[in-house]
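User: Can you recover a sequence for this backbone? Please restate the input before giving your answer.

Assistant: Of course. Working from this structure:
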């Protein structure tokens, strides 16, 4: 039986904002394939998504009672978290990167939809990057005598983390309400797109090579092929995105809709 779903009237301004942010995001990604210089525009956002991905690994390690030895982000937007874990905790930690990034983007959508201030979310994002950079990007590697990481990787992680922290804080503090709302929507879309396209790339890698990856770690721990884990992660990500978009378009806070485009 077909299900009729009507867009909530007070959600229309927010859906319009989401569509604009999505169009800009996809446009930059597509144009970036043909004009590499355009890629530099979204480069900081890609680094942000990498920080979120690695932060989810680190938080998963802490939740399962494991220590984090280092968190690094590389200039090519890849990243790495070193943690000593085994058994179920290693499975949870390996799955947390892609799933956590998707969940983070979805939660940003829900945050906006239910009338919570975009500035507060941007301050939280800034604080999260700051904590991860200082604690796991700087202090942890030196506490562990740079085990498994290089000095240059720590330098780039700290430098990029500091710039992202400052940039997000500046937007939250100085941008108009309209641009703060758009920035948060743009971050949400970028997190979702980054997670999805990264999973697509991981699918190709897992199908054709045995390169090291989160999926390869899962395969080594369980004996289940890496490709199966990628397919499962893609399915879960799509479900989370669908739920997030449904909540975003459903009836929520009237205040959020009214103030969405106010300067």
């Amino acid at each position: 039986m077909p299900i009729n779903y009507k867009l909530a009237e007070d959600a229309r301004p927010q859906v319009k904002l989401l569509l604009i942010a999505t169009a800009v995001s996809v446009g930059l990604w597509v144009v970036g394939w043909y004009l590499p210089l355009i890629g530099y525009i979204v480069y900081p956002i890609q680094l942000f998504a990498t920080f979120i991905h690695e932060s989810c690994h680190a938080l998963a390690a802490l939740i399962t009672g494991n220590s984090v030895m280092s968190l690094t982000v590389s200039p090519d937007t890849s990243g790495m978290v070193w943690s000593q874990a085994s058994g179920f905790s290693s499975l949870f930690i390996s799955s947390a990167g892609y799933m956590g990034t998707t969940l983070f983007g979805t939660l940003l959508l829900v945050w906006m939809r239910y009338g919570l201030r975009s500035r507060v979310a941007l301050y939280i994002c800034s604080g999260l990057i700051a904590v991860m950079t200082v604690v796991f990007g700087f202090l942890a590697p030196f506490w562990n005598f740079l085990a498994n990481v290089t000095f240059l990787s720590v330098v780039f992680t700290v430098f990029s983390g500091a710039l992202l922290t400052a940039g997000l804080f500046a937007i939250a503090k100085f941008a108009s309400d309209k641009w703060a709302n758009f920035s948060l929507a743009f971050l949400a879309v970028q997190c979702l797109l980054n997670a999805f396209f990264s999973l697509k790339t991981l699918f190709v890698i897992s199908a054709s090579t045995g390169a090291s990856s989160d999926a390869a770690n899962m395969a080594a721990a369980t004996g289940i092929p890496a490709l199966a884990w990628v397919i499962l992660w893609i399915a879960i990500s799509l479900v989370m995105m669908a739920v997030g978009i449904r909540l975003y378009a459903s009836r929520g806070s009237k205040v959020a809709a009214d103030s969405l485009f106010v300067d």
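That completes the design. Residues 1-5, 252-263 have pLDDT under 50 and may be disordered.
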